[in-house]
Amino acid sequence: MPALLDPYDPTRSRNAAGRTRSRPRTKRRNSFVKRPPQALDNGGNPNYLTTDMGDQTALLTHDPAPPKTRNPSAAQGGPMLAPRAGMKREDVLRAIARLTIAERTRLEATEALREMGVIRGRRLAEDLGQAIAAAFYRVEPPTTVGFDLETDDGTLIHVRTFHCTAKRRRTAVDTPHETYDLLLALRLDAAYAPVEAIEVPREVVQEYEHQGRLSWTKRLARDPRVRHIPGDAL
Q1: At 174, is the pLDDT very low, low, confident or very high (cuts 50, 70, 90)?
Q2: Structural domain harbouring 200
Q3: Max CA separation in the chain (angstroms)
Q4: 26-80 tens-digit pLDDT
Q5: What is the pTM of this model?
Q6: Separation CA 210–CA 46 (nearest Å)
Q7: Which one, out of 61, 192, 194, 205, has a CA that is 20 to 30 A from the CA of 70?
C-alpha cells in the first residue's frame, strides 16, 4: 500500500495530472552583508581619528585596506607588531605633534606651489618634475598640462617623472607619441627630492624601446649617447 502524502508538506506539490513532485529546498540568502562596526570621530567621520594634544590637534588617516590576494600573509600585511613595552604617553604625543607639524608644512608648501602655477593637476610628481626640469634647462615651465619644454634653440624636451620609494623603484618609461628631440627621465625619492635623471635622444629611444615602453636599465644609462645627470645637479 503506497504511503499517504502529507497535504501540508511544503516540499511536495501536485501537477495537472494529480501526480506529486518534489520541490527542491532553497536556502534563503540575506539581502545584506553584515559589516564590522567602524570607529567614528566626534564629527561622525569614519575614516579619521582625532587626537588632542593641548594646543595642537592631529588628524591621522587610517591605512587603506590591503589588496585582495590569494596569499593570506600578504593580504594581512604581515604579522602585526605589538606596542613597545614601557611606551610613555608623552613620547607618543610628542611624535604625533612632529607628524602634525610636518603635515601642516607640506599642505602649506603644496598650496603655495599651486598658487604659483607649479602644481596644475592631480599628478604631483609629474608637475614637480616639469618644474625641476624647467629650472635645470633655464626655461619657463609650460602653461598647459602635457606640453613639452622648449629651449631657446628650439629643442623639444619631453619629461617623464618617477616617484620612487625604497620598496618601489620604477624603471619602465612610457615613450611619448608627440614630437620631441630629447626624453628626460627623472627620478624623485619619497620626499620628492631629485635623485638622478637621464637625457636620451629620440633616436636612442627608438632603438631601445619595446612595444611603446623604454626600460631604464644600466645598459641604457651607460650608452655614450645618453647623458646622466646626478641629483645634486638638478
Answers
A1: confident
A2: 124-233
A3: 106
A4: 555 555 555 555 555 555 554 444 444 444 444 444 444 555 555 554 545 566 7
A5: 0.59
A6: 46
A7: 61
Q: How many domains does the chain have?
A: 2
Radius of gyration in angstroms for the set of CA atoms belonging to the chain, rounded to a whole number = 31
Cell readout for 144 is 598647459
In a domain, 94, yes or no: yes
Residues 109 and 199 occupy one common structural domain: no
In a domain, 175, yes or no: yes
Same domain membership, residue 186 and residue 104: no
Let me know if residue 40 belongs to a domain: no
**195 occurs within a structural domain:** yes
SS (H, E, C) the chain: CCCCCCCCCCCEEECCCCCEEECCCCCCCCCCCCCCCCCCCCCCCCCEEEEEECCEEEEEECCCCCCCCCCHHHHCCCCCCCCCCCCCHHHHHHHHHHHHHHHHHHHHHHHHHHHCCCCCCCCHHHHHHHHHHHHHHCCCCCCCCCCCEECCCCCEEEEEEEECCCCCCCCEEECCCCCCCEEEEEEECCCCCEEEEEEEEHHHHHHHCECCEEECCHHHHCCCCCEEEEHHHC
Verify that 102 and 132 share a domain, yes or no: no
